[in-house]
Amino acid sequence: MPLAILVALPQAAEAKKLPKNAKPMTAEEVIAIYSGNSAVWDGSKAYFSPEKRVKGVFGKGTKRVTYAGEWSVTDNEACMKNSAKGDPKIYTDCWKWWHVGTKTITLWSVHYDETKPDDRNGYYDEMRSIKKGDKVSKEYEELGGL
Predict the structure, then answer these.
(1) Which of 146, 6, 2 is nearest to 87 (CA)?
(2) Taking the CB of residue 66, how many other CB atoms lie within 10 A of it?
């Protein structure tokens, strides 16, 4: 069964253009956002361990599926590559990060389903999805992990 690792998409009203004065975040800044933290999106959540492993749960109710893999950061882009329980395909999602002062701006730069990112008007604040600590492992283990 193919797995669609869904992430929270910005609301149409909040997606916007990248400001001209936006500065790319450093790899170290992006690592600090993810390392040891979780992303909780509509329909999916993932924990990004300090050891660069990722594990997550996709779906709701009785239709939940676990996935696991690795995450990495190159320049201002974080990527997770993972596969789902029962599905050998490798899925990739990536996010590019910028800042204007203390405000962060994100682009979902690579989509698991290979659709094109909206690199013209698809910028939003992904920090609302980032939660401190591991918000995934308990549910992941209850579902049998991978």
Answers:
(1) 2
(2) 23
Residue 14 — pLDDT band, cuts 50, 70, 90? low
Amino acid in the structure at residue 39: A
CB neighbour list of residue 112: distance below 8 Å, 6 or more residues apart: 4, 5, 6, 91, 92, 93
Q: Compute the distance between CA of residue 88 and CA of residue 28 in angstroms, rounded to an integer.
A: 31
SS3 23: strand
Could you report the per-residue pLDDT of 54-75, keeping only the tens digit for each? Answer: 999 999 999 999 999 999 999 9
For residue 68, CA distances in Å to 29, 60, 84, 90 come to 23, 17, 7, 10
pLDDT tens track for 24-36:
999 999 999 999 9
Single pTM value for the model: 0.89
Which phi-psi region, left, alpha or beta, contains residue 133 (left: φ > 0; alpha: ψ -120 to 50)? left
